[in-house]
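Input record (one chain):
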Amino acid sequence: MLITVYACGTYAESVSMSKDQTYFYQGKWGMLYNGSWMTQLLEAQELGFEYGIVKSPYWEGTEKKGFATSTPVLINPKTEKLDAAWDLMTFLCGEEGAKIVAESMLVPGYMSDEIMTTFKESTGLDESSMEALTDNISYGLGEASVNLGQMSSAVNEELELVLTDNQSPEEMADNLNTRREEILSQN
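The corresponding structure, as predicted from the sequence alone:
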């Protein structure tokens, strides 16, 4: 989808994917694909403009997919303080911790009406933006994997080559398939 949006000129040409936020802040791009955590970054700056949130478009006749809302909380299994990490995680995922997360302008995993009202008040988002963030279908991401970071980096690297017109989307797909197999065979 992002490649289609870029190809039709909705996104300005870029030499790097890391410039997307800068271009958005400067008004060179009118739209920015990003996570719900972006509200925290936007509210921390003097933007000089108002913003809202919408769902990523999806093709007619298909399900809404590809939207992750809540802020993940993870524990590294190698931590020396596993019990303390577990206590913190269960706190953040409970009602009291979720309120603190919401006050910090991050979407919490625990979402009651009261918690989401706190989030709305902390961010100043309008009803339409709140609906875009909360009216979602949840999908499991599967088991955690040591390969996730490497796969994410591979996707970003290959996508940047497409967006900077250094390879075609077809080449990106082929390269990602090859890189995926390489990553999986190493672990």
